[in-house]
């Protein structure tokens, strides 16, 4: 195709067949990635971890999303805030550490120094009358949902109000505000971010790609078999201190101006109390749970952040775009706040399932990306087990066409 024949992005979206995989250009065209940055990536909340990571005043972590770097810090007033990690002098990154504790951040370039609220407190050799108060680090939108930290790279982010209200009940079951992060790993994935999230959205591949996961998770079963195990869990649920709650405000089902969110619980195979190698517990029961109902709860928080809550631990996955041909998956394993490492849980046991699963996901995502870059690639039809992925794509295409 000659360059002048290349359809516009609008024409490409219009030509996209519903129920089919995306056209090659959605994964390869840097102009589409730029549009995604504006319309999707910078406009939506992304999980930044759990408040327990920043327990003390001055505790900070730095989060990188797309081409942004954000300092998340507990300030002197005890509140957590997010600051753009971009010096107001000539723009250097200010904080080069990934995490730590500090009452101030000194820019490594010329030494401009900021406090934990982002206020400029020292700048050498500036002319008389230089007004430091006009050069604070810029604030980044920050929000919390029952102990989970989120940031958004725009000043008018989607409202979290309904998510906070509707997710309060299911999140209270696992006592989310009092969890702690027992382990965290980052997986770099050399493929466009949509490959990573599309893969997470469907379990059509689970039976073929994840022998470990497929041993315990029932998502890849057909509906009749799934119902049978599901009913068994539902009968046990209440005695275990859980409740049947279903919320679907995900993607296209989100209310206008609000972050999408969802909750549901799915049974594991009967031998499995939790997502562990042998099916036995790997940490103390969460919240006020009394026993294992043999289920795992799926949480959705906006387009990049997902969570699986077993009865004894929570696994959070954040898929972060890092460039048009690269992304990363950050996983947080969380347990109850008072659990002690080495006594109540073992990090290797806790992380085993989703470490092996994510390593194999990375491989299939990269293979997917390689094939899609081929001149022989043509988008194929989705199966009945890829409905969530299909509606995710529908949502992205809708967002890319936002007029504002
Ligand atoms: S760029 Fe930060 S002090 Fe100069
Ligand atoms: Fe997978």
Please explain how this structure is put together.
The chain is an alpha+beta fold. The chain contains eleven helices and 17 strands. It has helices spanning 9-15, 25-28, 30-41, 161-166, 168-173, 193-201, 206-209, 211-216, 223-237, 347-372, 387-400, and strands at 46-50, 59-65, 68-74, 80-84, 99-101, 104-106, 113-115, 120-122, 139-145, 148-152, 179-189, 247-249, 261-267, 295-301, 305-309, 314-323, 326-336. The chain has a seven-stranded antiparallel sheet, with no helix packed on it. A hairpin with a 2-residue loop joins strand 2 (59-65) and strand 3 (68-74). Helix 6 packs across helix 10 (347-372) and helix 6 packs antiparallel against helix 11. The longest helix is centred in the last third of the chain and has 26 residues, at 347-372. The protein is globular, with a radius of gyration of 22 Å. The two termini are 31 Å apart. The mean pLDDT is 95. The protein binds FE2/S2 (inorganic) cluster (FES) and fe (ii) ion.
User: How many separate helices?
Assistant: 11
**What ligand molecules are bound, each kind once?**
FE2/S2 (inorganic) cluster, fe (ii) ion
Q: Give the class from helix and strand content and strand pairing.
A: alpha+beta
How would a textbook summarize the main sheet? 7 strands, antiparallel
Mean pLDDT: 95
> Which spans have pLDDT < 50 for at least 5 consecutive residues?
none
Report, as a whole number of angstroms, the end-to-end distance: 31 Å
Beta-strand residue fraction: 25-35%
Enumerate the strands of the largest sheet in spatial order, edge to edge or round the barrel.
1-10-9-4-3-2-5
Q: Can you give the helix content as a percent range?
A: 25-40%
Write down how many β-strands occur, each being a DSSP E stretch of 2 or more residues.
17
Determine Rg (CA atoms, Å). Answer: 22 Å
Shape: globular
Order of helices and strands: HHHEEEEEEEEEEHHEHHHHEEEEEEHH
């Amino acid at each position: 195709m000659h360059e002048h024949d290349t359809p516009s992005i609008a024409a490409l979206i219009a030509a996209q067949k519903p129920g089919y995989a995306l056209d090659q250009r959605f994964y390869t065209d840097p102009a589409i990635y730029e549009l995604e940055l504006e319309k999707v990536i910078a406009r939506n909340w992304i999980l930044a971890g759990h408040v327990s990571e920043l327990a003390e005043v001055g505790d900070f972590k730095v989060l990188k999303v797309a081409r942004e770097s954000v300092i998340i810090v507990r300030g002197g007033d005890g509140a957590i805030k997010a600051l753009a990690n971009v010096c107001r002098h000539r723009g250097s990154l200010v904080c080069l550490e990934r995490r730590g504790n500090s009452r101030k951040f000194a820019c490594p370039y010329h030494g401009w120094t900021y406090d934990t609220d982002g206020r400029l407190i020292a700048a050498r050799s500036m002319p008389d009358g230089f007004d430091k108060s006009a050069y604070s680090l810029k604030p980044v939108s920050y929000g919390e949902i029952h102990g989970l930290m989120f940031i958004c790279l725009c000043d008018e982010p989607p409202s979290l109000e309904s998510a906070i209200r509707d997710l309060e009940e299911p999140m209270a079951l696992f006592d989310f505000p009092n969890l702690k992060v027992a382990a965290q790993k980052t997986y770099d994935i050399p493929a466009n971010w949509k490959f990573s999230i599309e893969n997470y959205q469907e379990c059509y591949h689970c039976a073929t790609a994840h022998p470990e996961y497929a041993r315990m998770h029932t998502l890849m079963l057909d509906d009749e078999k799934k119902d049978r195990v599901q009913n068994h869990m539902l009968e046990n649920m209440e005695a275990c201190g859980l409740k049947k709650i279903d919320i679907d405000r995900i993607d296209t089902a989100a209310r206008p101006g609000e972050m999408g969110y969802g909750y549901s619980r799915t049974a594991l195979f009967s031998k499995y109390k939790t997502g562990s190698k042998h099916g036995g517990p790997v940490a103390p029961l969460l919240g006020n749970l009394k026993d294992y109902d043999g289920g795992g709860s799926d949480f959705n928080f906006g387009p990049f952040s997902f969570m699986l809550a077993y009865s004894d631990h929570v696994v959070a996955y954040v898929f972060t775009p890092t460039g048009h041909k690269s992304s990363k998956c950050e996983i947080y394993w969380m347990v109850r706040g008072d659990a002690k490492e080495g006594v109540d849980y073992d990090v290797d046991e806790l992380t085993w399932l989703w470490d092996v699963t994510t390593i194999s996901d990375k491989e299939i995502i990269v293979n997917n990306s390689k094939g899609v870059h081929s001149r022989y690639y043509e988008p194929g039809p989705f199966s009945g087990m890829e409905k969530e992925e299909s509606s995710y794509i529908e949502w992205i295409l809708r967002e890319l066409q936002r007029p504002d």
